[in-house]
Amino acid sequence: MPIDDLTALGQKMREARKNKELTQQELSDLSHVSVKQIANIEKGKMNPSYLILRALAKVLHISLDTLINPDVSLEDEGVNQMKMLYSSCPPEMRDTLLHHTQETVKELTYLSEKFEMKRGKQAPLNTEFHSVAARSPFHSGRH
Q1: Of 48, 64, 66, 86, which residue is least crowded by CB atoms under 10 Å?
Q2: Mind giving me the DSSP string for 103-129?
């Protein structure tokens, strides 16, 4: 990898590690990659092997594509994160995950449409969302 790509890889990996609130030592313990290697990758001083990247990506719940491709769009990154969530879910629970995700999408779509209609009438932003959520046919009463 060219130096600029190694720097970008290191920055993405550091960001993903910090988003998971992990220290380099904790990431090392979970991935079985040495702290020295993690530090060198994050500094852009090491071109890691596929096996090292795969181990780190698995712990960080980030796709290899997101890590190594500096041109991944935010939308593609979101798709990659959804794939990682699905693949990290125990196989026997994947149908449940899909069902709940589909229901959440329906609810968010409904709320977004209602919010946009109310907003068109110049409703205050903060109060309308909660009152619309309470009237949603998907609302369970739990938060």
Answers
A1: 86
A2: HHHHHHHHHHHHHHHHHHTT--HHHHH
Contact status, residue 70 vs residue 8, Cβ threshold 8 Å: yes
Rounded CA-CA distance 40/48 in Å is: 9
Residue 119 tokens read as 């907003």
Cβ within 8 Å of residue 76, ≥6 positions away: 65, 66
The answer, as to whether pTM is greater than 0.90, is no
For residues 77 and 24, what is the distance between their CA atoms, to the nearest angstrom? 23
| Residue 10 burial (CB count, 10 A) | 21
The CA radius of gyration of the chain, in Å to the nearest whole number, is 20
pLDDT tens column, 111-134: 998 888 877 765 444 444 444 444
CA–CA separation, 68 and 96 (whole Å): 31
